[in-house]
Amino acid sequence: MKLEGKVAIITGAGSGVGHASSLLFSQEGAKVVAADLNAETAQKTAAEITAAGGEAISVQADVSSGPAVKNLVDKAIEKFGKVDIIFNCAGLPQKPYLTWELEDDEFEKVMAVNVKSNWLLLKYAGLELKKNHGNIIMVGSTGAIKPRATQALYAAAKGAIFTFVKGAAAELAPEGRANVIHPGPIRTPMLPKFSPDQPQTEEETNAVFAQIAAGTMLGELIEPEDIAKSAVFLASDDAAKITGFSLLVDAGTIIARPRN
Ligand SMILES: NC(=O)c1ccc[n+]([C@@H]2O[C@H](COP(=O)([O-])OP(=O)(O)OC[C@H]3O[C@@H](n4cnc5c(N)ncnc54)[C@H](O)[C@@H]3O)[C@@H](O)[C@H]2O)c1
Question: Which atom of ligand 1 lies nearest, measured to the CA of 38?
């Protein structure tokens, strides 16, 4: 097991990447603090882990709020005595409109959940990670490198993480590490929300998924478990000398175009 004896806070744990990662981190021996804005889904994830024989608690937390993040870190230490790993999966796409079609407050909302959350987690758990020779994994997006129209603000938020992770790595060093995974299109409830067409039915969603998959070099969507496996690698001692790094897990979406 790659994470034996470690305590991991996983945000966005109620859905998609956070959910899959919570289960895999537990299978790899970690005690999991499953955090989400949605108390019910976070609780469900923690219950799945305990039903499978693992150790987990759930915490309702808005990762864009300082007091909520402080409470999350406090709860983790209260229950499990320490924090070794933070995987910040919570994220939010912007509304799928052009910049001049959005309200002013969209900026604060998208930046707060996608960027400020990483800063708050480092603020309230950075010293704890240093103490335990731990690490934080942030989640960017291929949008940080190649933005699309109607997601310019989301792309800017993910682009900020691209740089923030390097500063975070420098501040956590020499004891701790910070890395970021930049995923391509993942089969989660978030993926259809990026589409300007906003598919409603299952049939429409499947058609959008097929079109997106065809645009990747490997011709496939990324599964939440693919990201979870990469996160286990970065969180584990296998990546002990990797820090400040941006890992693309994108089925080849950014590197080159497929034949068709
Ligand atoms: N799905 C994709 O195609 C894709 C592509 C690139 C990057 N990403 C990024 O991957 C990460 C995981 O996304 P996902 O696809 O699993 O999405 P998802 O919508 O399935 O899950 C996101 C989770 O975050 C939670 N969340 C939202 N706002 C929160 C807040 N303020 N505080 C705490 N929790 C909050 C939601 O309740 C939800 O459970 C996000 O950072 C996302 O931006 C996703």
Answer: 37
pTM of the model: 0.98
Angle, helix 224-235 to helix 16-27, in steps of 10 degrees: 50
Q: Report whether 188 contacts 90 (CB < 8 A).
A: no
Are 64 and 116 within 8 A, CB to CB? yes
CA 28 – CA 120 distance, rounded (Å): 27
Task: Tell me the β-bridge partners of 178.
Answer: 136
* E strand or H helix at 171: helix 152-172
Task: Indicate whether 226 pLDDT > 80.
Answer: yes
Q: Which atom of ligand 1 is nearest to the CA of 140?
A: 7
Going along the chain from its start, the domains and CATH numbers come out as 7-249 (3.40.50.720)
Are the C-beta atoms of 258 and 216 separated by less than 8 Å?
yes
Contact between residue 94 and residue 114 where contact means Cβ atoms under 8 Å apart:
no
